[in-house]
From TrEMBL:
Biased composition (Polar residues): 136-155
Name of protein: Proton extrusion protein PxcA
Record field: transmembrane: 198-216, 381-401
One example GO MF annotation: proton transmembrane transporter activity
Main location: membrane
Length: 421
């Protein structure tokens, strides 16, 4: 059963306020501008302005067309519903009214500029607003939103309850029979599926290939060479650093003292000095063999890690298209989270890496890195690193929140500040 055509035409007017429609058009225009800046060097999204493959460019083209449809539909909805719902608006102070008006005009200009640019490209007129001028306009709008934070009509109480409006909108989408809508859903699903598959495959390659390179080079190439030069010969350098030597001496001394202690308590029969010396000598050989293995393992780790870094670099260099798709996938995933989830992840990350208890974690990490590469532990370096590096990370976090997140998702920043307090 379908709603009458005339009723369905009025459903969008009731389901969203004019300012909500304009905000959707503005966000879609910003998404197109973001794709231009990130992947096409602030140029229109065309094949001639990129070096991507047909598959990757087709994905970008689908994203732009989808956002252009969102901009066009919501601009039309804004212009039609604003006059229809004017009686539902409340009276506002004069200064608040002009702030809202200026913001609406700026958002309209940005959305209409994007529409005009790609309409001219479609008609063969390669005219585009200078990127710097448009970027300045976007920056001015973001600054206005951060400074004034005006209350738009979408924030006010409407005549109809919002839950009822959302229900009407959902019913409209479910009962309206449109081949274009179905094709768009299928097209978006295929694009999202391909993007997810490419991103997951690329992430697995980034993880598995360096690990396999490390294990293969270490066990089958480096280990035989290292054992040939360090095990079969009577090498004079047994320990790779002084910490290994001190640990070996302490372990041997502890073993000898344990034997004498057990002998005094009668836990084992009395031994002559020759027997005691023979046991100590046998234990010394075991300790020497163990620390020889640790020294060889450290050398093997250094060379194998270098090979892994080279393999990782080659993958990154040869996979620029996959990196672009992965970045888009991560952006969509992160920005798809709720504001509370974003704030929770930010707080969790900052507390782990730069929080009150983070120095203990950094100390453990530095000790494990030293053991992995066979380096002597340097307490002074550890203290200096712990005193400076978390501070640098904290500064980067705050700058990212102020410079980037505050422009993309100001509500997430507000939620983060409230949760942090």
């Amino acid at each position: 059963m379908y709603l009458p055509r005339k009723i369905r035409q009025f459903v969008p007017w009731f389901s969203e306020s004019p300012e909500e429609s304009l905000e959707k058009a503005y966000q879609a225009a910003l998404m197109i501008k973001l794709i231009e800046d990130e992947y096409f060097e602030q140029q229109p999204i065309q094949q001639k302005n990129s070096s991507y493959s047909d598959e990757v460019f087709s994905y970008f083209e689908q994203e732009v067309n989808r956002n252009l449809r969102i901009v066009g539909d919501n601009l039309k909805k804004f212009k039609e519903s604003r006059s229809f719902l004017r009686w539902a608006a409340q009276d506002y102070p004069r200064n608040q009214y002009f702030k809202n008006t200026d913001l609406i005009i700026e958002k309209l200009n940005v959305a209409e500029d994007i529409i005009s640019t790609y309409e001219k490209l479609e008609s063969g007129k390669n005219i585009k607003q200078p990127p710097k001028e448009q970027q300045q306009k976007l920056s001015n709008i973001a600054n206005q939103e951060r400074s004034s934070k005006p209350r738009t009509i979408s924030d006010q109480t409407s005549v109809l309850p919002r839950s009822l409006l959302r229900t009407l909108n959902r019913i409209k989408r479910e009962v309206e029979k449109s081949s274009d809508a179905e094709e768009e859903v299928i097209r978006n699903f295929r694009s999202s599926r391909d993007k997810t598959a490419i991103s997951i495959r690329f992430l697995l390659i980034l993880i598995i290939v360096p690990l396999l390179t490390h294990q293969i080079t270490k066990n089958f190439i480096i280990a035989p060479i290292a054992e040939h030069y360090f095990v079969q010969e009577d090498q004079q350098v047994l320990f790779i650093n002084r910490d290994f030597r001190e640990e070996a001496l302490q372990e041997l001394q502890h073993f000898e003292e344990t034997l004498r202690f057990e002998e005094i308590l009668g836990m084992q029969p009395e031994m002559s000095e020759a027997e005691m010396e023979e046991k100590v000598r046998e234990k010394a050989r075991e300790i020497a063999e163990y620390y020889r293995y640790r020294s060889l393992n450290a050398i093997e780790n250094i060379i194998a890690d270098i090979c892994s870094v080279i393999a990782f670099t080659i993958i990154i260099y040869r996979s620029r298209e996959e990196i672009a798709v992965l970045k888009s996938f991560i952006d969509e995933f992160v920005y798809g989270l709720s504001d509370s989830a974003k704030a929770f992840i930010i707080i969790l990350s900052t507390d782990i890496f730069v929080g009150y208890h983070s120095p203990h974690g950094w100390e453990v990490i530095l000790e494990q890195i030293s053991r992995h590469f066979g380096l002597p532990e340097n307490r002074e370096f550890n203290f200096i690193f712990i005193a400076t590096f978390p501070v640098i990370l904290d500064t980067i976090f705050k700058y990212w929140i102020f410079r980037y997140l505050n422009r993309i998702s100001p509500s997430a920043v507000a939620t983060y500040r409230n949760m942090n307090e």
